[in-house]
Q: What sequence folds into this?
């Protein structure tokens, strides 16, 4: 196992991360995207420009048709984006806009010519481009931007601020692998954009020695001595090295990557174009994000009076816009108050409705007499059960019957159903009484006789008379122990006799009489 880090090492690591984070947030960041339909070639040009702006750009930024410029502005703040590079295409030309966030200005260019990275690379015999070149930002070079003119100074300032600044005293030369060149032509007013990769090689030695320094062994089959390789360096292709001159030879202040690049020694700086190329022409400069006053226009010039008139018209439009905004805020506040008042009234109505419903459930029906039950049907069932069985019903026997609060001193037996009146003595007579007694009455015309009336519901559940229960189930003779296979429940009496001793004869006799009637 490796040794654990000490406290000082952890503290130094945290400080380094903090410094790197602060440095990352202070450098400019950019979005490169398009507006509208641009086509395949312009889309590839956008990807190439994202490659140029690496690593401080959104390389995989996706744009949808419904996105508007305000969407990108809203996302730029949290992400720390400072510049927009927007491409668009019309019927006659390709246009490019450079915008500084959040309040502008915006520079509009016309792209006169452009070449993609694949076109530049395919035109070269040997190209130099690898991934390590894009881990650091490029070095920006401005040429011929010292011409007098407000628009020239503003344009050069915009180009400089698109890339991170370099401190000459602290810069590490090994981090500079690319450079971006902007060249301004005062006669044609065109800007040439180029993108190069940097390579530093030592000078003062033959090409054969350079081959050996690079661990590449040349073909020495035609040499008679090794000294010919060091002195002449013949039999080497001219494409392996470019001729060096005074314009590209310098003395290195630091050790640079590559064999032979030592500090305080002369080395040659060589540029290899990696693309893309663009030829730009400035059209106009506007305040804000393409919605402000026009500060400069290449083809349209206006007098002082026209400028003042435009400013007055712009001011009137801003005042009108501010008035509409205030009116809209007032309307929104009014609608909120109306919704709150309507909600309050609705809640009051719902509470009042619930309270009235509760009062109606507690108040007695005015159509009924005093002391009469509200739910007549449930009381009828309970009273009928009392008359038929002679006992009080259980609480859960009539679950749908709503219990009503009774006044003190009253009982449920006092309430009778006003709908169904039965003749007295029709039900509840004990068996064995004389049918000619006082409680027996003749049936009226149109009424069913006692024998034909259906038995009331619930009689089989609570009726406890032995004779009726035996008649209902067909007598005790049917409940013989032959059906039960358990030996403990078999009757010990001989066949033909009942297993029940109590009142067996009477039940048998009653069963025969009922059977004889049938």
A:
């Amino acid at each position: 196992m490796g040794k654990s880090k000490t406290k000082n090492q952890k503290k130094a690591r945290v400080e380094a991360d903090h410094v790197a984070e602060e440095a990352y947030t202070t450098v400019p960041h950019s979005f490169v995207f398009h507006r509208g339909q641009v086509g395949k070639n312009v889309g590839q040009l956008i990807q190439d420009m994202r490659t140029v702006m690496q690593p401080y750009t959104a390389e995989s930024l996706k744009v949808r048709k419904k996105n508007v410029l305000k969407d990108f502005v809203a996302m730029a703040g949290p992400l720390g984006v400072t510049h927009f590079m927007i491409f668009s295409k019309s019927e006659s030309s390709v246009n490019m806009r450079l915008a500084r966030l959040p309040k502008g200005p915006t520079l509009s260019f016309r792209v006169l010519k452009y070449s993609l990275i694949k076109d530049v690379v395919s035109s070269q015999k040997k190209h130099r481009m690898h991934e390590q070149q894009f881990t650091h930002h490029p070095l920006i070079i401005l040429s011929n931007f010292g011409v007098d003119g407000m628009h020239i100074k503003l344009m050069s300032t915009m180009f400089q601020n698109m890339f991170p600044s370099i401190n000459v005293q602290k810069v590490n030369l090994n981090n500079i692998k690319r450079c971006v060149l902007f060249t301004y032509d005062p006669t044609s007013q065109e800007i040439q954009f180029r993108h190069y990769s940097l390579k530093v090689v030592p000078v003062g030695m033959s090409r054969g020695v350079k081959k050996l320094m690079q661990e590449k062994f040349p073909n020495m089959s035609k040499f008679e001595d090794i000294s010919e390789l060091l002195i002449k360096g013949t039999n080497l292709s001219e494409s392996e090295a470019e001729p060096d001159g005074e314009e590209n030879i310098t003395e290195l202040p630091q050790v640079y990557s590559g064999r032979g690049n030592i500090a305080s020694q002369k080395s040659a700086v060589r540029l290899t174009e990696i693309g893309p190329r663009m030829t730009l022409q400035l059209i106009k400069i506007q305040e804000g994000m393409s919605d402000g006053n026009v500060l400069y226009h290449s083809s349209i010039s206006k007098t002082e009076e026209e400028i003042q008139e435009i400013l007055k018209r712009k001011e009137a439009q801003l005042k009108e816009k501010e008035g509409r905004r205030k009116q809209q805020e007032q309307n929104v506040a009014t609608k909120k108050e109306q919704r709150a008042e309507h909600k309050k009234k609705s809640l009051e109505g719902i509470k009042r409705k619930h309270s009235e419903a509760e009062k109606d459930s507690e108040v007695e029906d005015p159509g009924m007499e005093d002391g009469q039950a509200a739910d007549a049907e449930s009381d009828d069932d309970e009273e009928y059960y009392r008359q038929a069985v002679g006992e009080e019903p259980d609480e859960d026997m009539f679950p749908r019957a709503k219990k009503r609060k009774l006044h003190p001193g009253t009982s449920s037996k006092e309430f009778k159903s006003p709908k169904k009146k039965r003749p007295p003595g029709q039900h509840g007579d004990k068996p064995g009484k004389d049918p000619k007694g006082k409680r027996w009455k003749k049936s009226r015309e149109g009424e069913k006789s006692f024998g034909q009336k259906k038995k009331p519901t619930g009689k089989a559940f609570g009726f406890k008379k032995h004779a009726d229960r035996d008649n209902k189930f067909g007598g005790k003779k049917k409940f013989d122990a032959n059906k039960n296979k358990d030996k403990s429940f078999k009757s010990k009496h001989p066949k033909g006799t009942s297993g029940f001793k109590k009142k067996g004869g009477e039940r048998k006799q009653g069963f025969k009489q009922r059977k004889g009637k049938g």
